[in-house]
Design brief:
Elements lengths: L11 E5 L8 H5 L42 H21 L14 E5 L5 H9 L4 E6 L12 E5 L16 E7 L2 H6 L3 H7 L1 E10 L6 E2 L8 H15 L10 H8 L2 E6 L2 E3 L7 H19 L1 H9 L4 H14 L7 E4 L1
Parallel strand pairs: 1-6, 1-8, 2-3, 2-5, 3-4, 5-6
Antiparallel strand pairs: 7-10, 9-10
Helix pairs in contact: 2-8, 6-9, 6-10
Protein name: Methyltransferase domain-containing protein
Pfam family, one: Methyltransf_23
GO molecular function: methyltransferase activity
Length: about 325
């Protein structure tokens, strides 16, 4: 893993975006395909609301407003997916919450905090830090550390709702928000101005569509779902591979010493190594959850398919998640 170095006056950024996966041939000799998916399944005053029906009407982030507002069951599935994804990130980074070389940031912003799991864990690990989490939906838990504050905003694209004053933070962290950055080109400039000299912006993202280390993904239901999701997203004005553009955008905003760290997240247990198998098991669950929640909504609104056609596409892709002969992964 490559880390960015510290400078006295310049703001830094660390792009956390496992090493290349190889096929565990022994898994191909095992009888049957094991399933690894479930059946269903102003920075200021703290807003720690109950998880109730009103939260279902809030938007996850500005860019996703093109998809429409969440129904309650979609929000529940999305909450589960974010918890799974948090666990995958911790395994990938050897339990590090961030890779920026900061021993104990004084003030931290978790931009688009979601369920607040990263912010809460950061507050616990750094009890002398001030932790802020900002999002459009008040879905964070009520019982949080005293040094952790959550705020809600109706529009993340309006930087005044989270950038209360210039050079406020030592670290700004965000996860899986690359599509938002495409629709909000001023984010990087606002983040730069909101950091103390020597502060860091760290983004953690993955690319879609799903990839494969060989040709095993071709003409599968999972590949068809992945391509349909990307096409539907584009139709809605959402780019699914914009994290590749984050580095030049950071540099254009004034960040220096921008570093990228690349991983591969296997889908399922086909890859060598115990850590890859742990990640693969969780990644399959994460992907399935995403298919049934936000992914379904994207297809319904952007693919020109009926509900029954969308559900059929999802069901076929879900069946592929347990196939060890399919060597799929996400580029992270």
């Amino acid at each position: 893993m490559v880390r960015s170095s510290m400078a006295d006056t310049a703001r830094q950024s660390a792009l956390l975006n496992l090493k290349a996966c190889t096929v565990d041939e022994s898994s191909l000799r095992e009888r049957g395909a094991e399933r690894h998916v479930s059946k269903k399944r102003t920075l200021g005053e703290s807003v720690n609301s109950q998880e109730n029906d009103s939260a279902a009407e809030e938007e996850r982030a500005g860019c996703w407003s093109r998809v429409g507002k969440f129904r309650s069951h979609i929000l529940d599935v999305e909450r589960e997916r974010l918890e799974i994804q948090h666990e995958i990130w911790l395994i990938s980074t050897q339990n590090k919450l961030f890779l920026a070389p900061l021993a104990a940031p004084g003030t931290i912003l978790d931009f688009a905090t979601g369920t607040g799991n990263w912010a809460i864990e950061s507050a616990r690990r750094f009890p002398n830090s001030r932790m802020f989490g900002c999002d459009t939906a008040p879905i964070q838990p009520k019982d949080v550390p005293a040094n952790c504050t959550f705020c809600t905003t109706t529009n993340l694209e309006d930087s005044t709702t989270w950038s209360s004053s210039p050079q406020t933070f030592d670290l700004i962290h965000s996860r899986s928000m690359a599509p938002f950055f495409s629709s909000s080109p001023t984010f990087f400039e606002s983040a730069f101005e909101s950091l103390n000299p020597g502060g860091y912006l760290e983004l953690q993202d993955h690319l879609v569509p799903v990839c494969s280390v060989d040709s095993s993904l071709q003409e599968t239901d999972l590949d068809r779902w992945s391509q349909a999701f990307c096409s539907a997203s584009r139709n809605l004005g959402i780019s699914t591979d914009d994290s590749a553009l984050s580095k030049p955008r950071m540099e254009a905003a004034g960040f220096v010493d921008v570093r990228e760290v690349h991983f591969q997240w296997p889908v399922g247990t086909w890859a060598h190594g115990e850590i890859n198998k742990q990640i693969g098991t969780l990644c399959a669950r994460n992907l399935e959850s995403g298919m049934q929640g936000l992914g379904r909504e994207v297809l319904l609104q952007g693919a020109g398919l009926s509900a029954s056609e969308v559900d059929g596409l999802i069901e076929g892709a879900r069946s592929d998640l347990g196939n060890r002969k399919l060597h799929a992964y996400f580029s992270v």
